[in-house]
Design goal:
Layout lengths: L1 H17 L9 H7 L2 H8 L22 H10 L2 H14 L3 H15 L1 H7 L1 H5 L3 H9 L17 H28 L7 H18 L1 H10 L1 H20 L11 H16 L18 H29 L4 H7 L5 H9 L4 H12 L1 H19 L10 H17 L3 H30 L22 H14 L13 H4 L3 H23 L4
Helix pairs in contact: 4-12, 4-15, 4-19, 5-14, 5-15, 6-14, 6-15, 7-15, 10-11, 10-17, 10-18, 10-19, 10-20, 10-21, 11-19, 11-20, 12-19, 13-18, 14-21, 16-17, 17-18, 19-20, 21-22, 21-24, 22-24
Length: about 525
């Protein structure tokens, strides 16, 4: 009975939040009554309208804290995690043993940052990018006309948009490949990609309540599919070569570690989007633990499984044919499940749909990035930007479908750089300049340029950190002098360097800026 009461309370909170607009809580009910019939119908169906407006303290009453575990678990319990693990042997030439050790230890380390930022949502009631305004603020006045309302946050918002759209592209490609693989050639990858994108769009369009419901229900079929795959193909995985006989080079280890970190560390820029409705008195340790386990359990397990499967594939003709020369992950999974016949095809379809849990949540956060990037966009309902995000990602997914491994390697390495610097800046601001006190964030200033920082310190720290990050890069298209010898250590350098640079720059900014 207690759980039912909590569920009802959660639903009531979400419905109430959906009816609020930026005009303020006092006029929300009258505004809803003046809305056109189609909009009232959407809200009655449970569609969340709230965009970047923070949730007031008294409205943060959701006590079903376990939901955040399922959000991150389902987002990562999919074939993108599986495919990321294959990069160790395929791209970096690592043995199965070395690949799994890197996956284990670097994920245990990297998952801590986004898990920590999940704890900020209940305390502030703010979306992650909105909270970032208290560090990145607005552009220095010299760069703007005073009447403009653009913020320095636009730079991380743009970078985050690129990262989120990139994840959606990769997930759409994988889901489309897997869906097409069960059709015996009657369905193209393009059709599969379109189906995956539309399913995710519907879920994201509905918003917080439906999103949480879907994330709690989407993972059991995926778990069943992987269990069956292990059951019928485990003997081949057992025979996969685990050690090549030669020790890995530092360059290959650190470059693969950069990919692994880039996969998870970028969740930092969307973390509190899913916890802002939670009761503010919840233990931060509880939210951190739920979130951390939601990251590490599915990511480590599936990345190691992907590495083992791709190493075993050359020894299993059907797996090798399914995987092909183009690195078709969906074809590999379909081949692993083929011994169980039609049921295997059904499970492959379930695996293809696993990516919708990730795409839907990513689309959800994309909405807020658009509204933060261009403040006037916040006048439009949140769900409009789910459509915009799909319209951007869908054609790019179709175009990039046949260059998956190149796109995956480059993308995951690159996005880790900026996210690492971003996380360091927010942590230094919170613990050094605000003494870890969430009460120091003026909740009435979130949308007022005159009461927010210039953002010059945060932007300068981020940009200047790349003076050392770039020489430490090792990409297909660029090798820095340090990275060429050490491997890619860009994200490891970006975090401490951005944090160190932010200290004196922020002090200087505070000295000359007078906040109203």
């Amino acid at each position: 009975m207690a759980d039912l009461r909590e569920e009802k309370l959660s639903v009531d909170v979400e419905k109430d939040a959906a009816s609020k607009t930026e005009s303020g809580a006092a006029s929300a009910h009258s505004e809803e009554n003046k809305s056109p019939p189609w909009l009232r119908a959407l809200l009655s169906w449970g569609v969340e309208e709230r965009g970047i407006v923070p949730v007031p303290y008294e409205q943060r009453t959701d006590r079903q804290f376990y939901k955040i575990f399922f959000v991150w678990f389902s987002m990562n319990f999919n074939i993108l995690s599986f495919s990321t693990g294959t990069l160790g042997p395929v791209v970096f030439g690592l043995s199965l043993r070395d690949t799994c050790l890197i996956i284990l230890f670097f994920n245990l380390f990297a998952c801590a940052l986004p898990a920590y930022f999940n704890t900020w949502g209940p305390r502030t009631g703010m979306r992650q990018m909105v909270h970032s305004r208290y560090s990145f603020g607005r552009h220095p006045p010299a760069l703007l006309i005073d009447s403009c309302r653009y913020y320095g946050i636009m730079i991380p918002a743009i970078l985050n948009l690129i990262g989120l759209c990139g994840f959606n592209i990769l997930n759409s490609i994988l889901g489309g490949q897997a869906l097409a693989s069960v059709s015996n050639g009657s369905m193209s990858w393009t059709v599969g990609i379109v189906i995956i994108a539309l399913v995710a769009l519907v879920i994201s369009f509905m918003g917080y309540r439906v999103l949480n419901w879907y994330e709690r229900l989407s993972w059991p079929p995926v778990l069943l599919a992987f269990i069956v795959a292990l059951g019928v193909g485990g003997k081949h995985l057992y025979n996969a070569p685990s050690f090549s006989g030669e020790p890995p080079t530092a360059a290959s280890v650190l470059s693969f570690a950069s990919v692994i970190a880039g996969f998870v560390i970028t969740f930092s820029a969307m973390a509190s989007d899913f916890t802002m409705y939670y009761e503010p008195t919840v233990s931060s340790h509880k939210i951190f633990l739920y979130s951390y386990l939601g990251y590490v359990v599915p990511i480590i397990v599936l990345e190691c499984l992907g590495a083992a499967a791709v190493m075993a594939a050359p020894n299993v003709p059907s797996w090798n044919d399914g995987y092909g020369t183009a690195g078709n992950i969906g074809g590999l999974l379909e081949a692993m499940l083929s011994p169980v016949g039609g049921f295997g095809k059904f499970l492959t379809v379930m695996l293809s749909l696993s990516v919708t849990a990730n795409i839907a949540c990513t689309l959800y956060s994309i909405c807020f990035n658009f509204q933060v990037l261009v403040p006037s966009f916040s006048k439009a309902p949140r769900y409009v930007f789910s459509i915009v995000g799909t319209a951007i990602s869908l054609p790019l997914s179709i175009v990039g479908a046949h260059r998956f491994y190149t796109a995956l390697t480059n993308f995951l390495s690159l996005i880790g750089y900026w996210a690492s610097a971003y996380g360091a800046i927010l942590i230094v601001e919170h613990y050094y300049f605000r003494k870890g006190d969430f009460g120091s964030y003026d909740h009435n200033a979130w949308n007022d340029p005159k009461r927010l920082p210039w953002g010059a310190a945060a932007m300068a720290a981020g940009v200047l950190s790349f003076a050392l990050v770039i020489p430490c890069m090792q990409q297909v298209w660029f090798e820095g002098p340090i990275g060429a010898k050490s491997g890619d250590i860009g994200f490891e350098v970006a975090f401490p360097l951005a944090g160190i640079l932010y200290l004196p720059l922020r002090k200087l900014e505070l000295k000359y800026q007078k906040l109203h």
